[in-house]
Amino acid sequence: MKVLGNDVIINQCVAGGQFELNHNLPLIAFSMLESLEMLINANKIFKERCIDGITANEEEIKRKVENSYATLNALLPEFGYNRLTEIAKDLQKTTKNNDFSVKEFLIKGKYLSEERFNELTSPEAILALGQG
Questions:
Q1: What dotted CATH number matches 58-131?
Q2: Quick check: 75 and 84 in contact, CB under 8 A?
Q3: Which residues contact 120 (CB under 8 A, 6 or more apart)?
Q4: If pLDDT is split at 50, 70 and 90, which confidence band does 31 have?
């Protein structure tokens, strides 16, 4: 709230100036520096109390990747759009009544080997897709 208040102060001070002459420059500078100091301190506290010590639950992440339809996007270079659309439709029909994961469906359906699935859905492969 104080940072927002300082923003209002700065806007009012700037609006009250004449061309390059502004008698409110000291108040503008003070308000800006005060806001910067508060935001820097808030970031430090947030880092110390909320970010430090966070670790990824790799098993849960892997499970979610293996069960997510979004994973199919990583397979686009392997199959192409039309083929992948067909696979997604088959997957949707099959998984409605079964407890298959996307990974299990692709392996059991012989679309991909487990090694190839892991390779295409690795973090490195996903990052390369975003840059390609």
A1: 1.10.40
A2: yes
A3: 74, 75, 77, 78, 112
A4: very high
- Could you identify the residue written with the tokens 């997957």? 91
Q: Domain extents for the chain?
A: 2-51, 58-131
Which parts of 47-121 fold into alpha helices (H)?
58-67, 76-79, 81-95, 102-108, 114-120
CB burial of residue 32 (10 Å; 0-12, 13-18, 19+): middle
Residue 54 is encoded by which pair of tokens? Answer: 């966070």
Confidence of residue 97 (pLDDT cuts 50, 70, 90): low
- Predicted model pTM: 0.55
Residue 22 CA, distance from chain mean position = 42
Contact assessment for residue 28 and residue 13, using Cβ atoms and an 8 Å cutoff? yes
* Amino acid code (one letter) for 107: I
